[in-house]
Design brief:
The chain is about 45% helix and about 15% strand. The protein has one domain: Rossmann fold. By secondary structure, it is an alpha/beta fold. It contains 9 helices and 8 strands. α2 links the parallel β1 and β2. The protein is globular and about 45 Å long. α2 crosses α3 and α4 runs parallel beside α5. The structure holds NADP nicotinamide-adenine-dinucleotide phosphate.
């Protein structure tokens, strides 16, 4: 059976606390001259937490921002326009747990005619128990992992990206220490409770990192100039715990408020990765906040990467006739 790094949220929170004391060797490279004028940036899940803060900072730095969200329409975009004075902030409705919604989002983006220069795959959920989506998958598996594969493939295949677009996957250093892929359970819906949900969170991040590494291989094999990079923002005082059971949520809210970083602080290395010339032409970089480091070694196994990619596309095809392979 697969397992993640933690099965207790308090263990995860404690690790987040120690993250706050890590060296940040690239922090001095995050400067005001990183600007986004003339660039279009898509961010999934930008109603709160990290995604909102990244959207606001990119807008402040002159970018044209598209927020792909399932809620908060239109007030999230309005708030960012008002705070930053940047009129080029728009919202598209996108529920990553709903396949039809993902297709509608990509159709809208493709029809707009303007290409995306950066896509931040940010949205994720932590649920207190398994929940089945209308297409039959576990919601955390779909939103936190498979929807990112689907969205990336559709954006590439429908020509929504500029030639040097940066694909940025928001990961977590908790992927380190998750088990290898369990092929018997891959994509299968199973009932589970809160500790397996916490465990799955970091396991799905391991899947994401392995997938993004394989995407990088595939892009290079095609001679593409698109890049695929990953980042863990460190501990963020966000809404990620909003569906936790009430007592646990109250405890975690206290820990998050006292110890974790504010979303604008946590967004800094993400904005750096999205806009800095330091990453021009670089792909499969992993940042843990402001430090570049290798991911868990399992992520780099090319056979596992290929197998995961193919299994993900096959799974997608099994419930979506409009699936495309890449
Ligand atoms: N918080 C941390 O300590 C931490 C640490 C490492 C990595 N991260 C990563 O950072 C990213 C952002 O999380 P966060 O901490 O900022 O949490 P957050 O405040 O809960 O933000 C999550 C965002 O995802 C959206 N979302 C959830 N389900 C969705 C769906 N089905 N379709 C579309 N959007 C959906 C939420 O929208 P709604 O408002 O509609 O729910 C929200 O905008 C995640 O990838 C998370 O894994 C967080």
């Amino acid at each position: 059976m697969s397992h993640g790094r933690f099965s207790s949220p308090l263990g995860a929170a404690l690790t987040g606390f120690f993250d706050l004391f890590r060296a940040a060797p690239l922090k001095h490279r995050y400067t005001p001259d990183i600007r986004f004028e003339g660039k279009r940036v898509l961010i999934t899940g930008a109603t709160s937490g990290l995604g909102y803060a990244v959207a606001e900072e990119v807008a402040r730095r002159g970018g044209s921002v598209t927020l792909a969200c399932r809620s908060g329409i239109p007030q999230t975009g309005e708030a960012i326009r008002k705070k930053t004075g940047n009129a080029h902030v728009e919202m598209v409705r996108c529920d990553l747990a709903d396949l039809v919604s993902i297709h509608v989002t990509v159709n809208t983006l493709a029809a707009s005619g303007s290409k995306l220069d950066v896509v931040v795959f940010n949205a994720a959920v932590t649920l207190p128990r398994s929940r089945r989506t209308s297409s039959g998958q576990d919601e955390m598996f779909l939103v936190n992992y498979l929807a990112n594969v689907i969205l990336a493939c559709l954006l590439i295949e429908r020509g929504c990206l500029s030639p040097k677009a940066r694909l940025i996957f928001i990961s977590s250093d908790s992927h380190r220490g998750a088990s290898a892929v369990d092929w018997n359970e891959f994509g299968r819906y199973e009932e589970y409770g809160v500790s397996k949900a916490i465990s799955n969170y970091s396991y799905f991040k391991l899947l994401m990192n392995t997938m993004a590494t394989e995407l990088d291989r595939r892009l290079k094999a095609r001679g593409s100039t698109l890049t695929s990079n990953l980042i863990c923002p460190g501990p963020v005082n966000s809404n990620i715990i909003k569906e936790a059971p009430p007592l646990l949520r109250a405890i975690l809210r206290g820990v998050f408020t006292l110890i974790f970083k504010s979303p604008p602080k946590a967004a800094e290395p993400v904005v750096y990765l999205a806009g800095s010339p330091d990453f021009e032409g670089r792909s499969n970089v992993y940042l843990h906040m402001f430090a570049e480091k290798p991911m868990d070694e399992k992520v780099y196994d090319p056979e596992e990467g290929q197998r995961l990619w193919e299994a993900s596309i096959d799974l997608w095809k099994s419930f979506d006739p409009r699936a495309v392979s890449f």
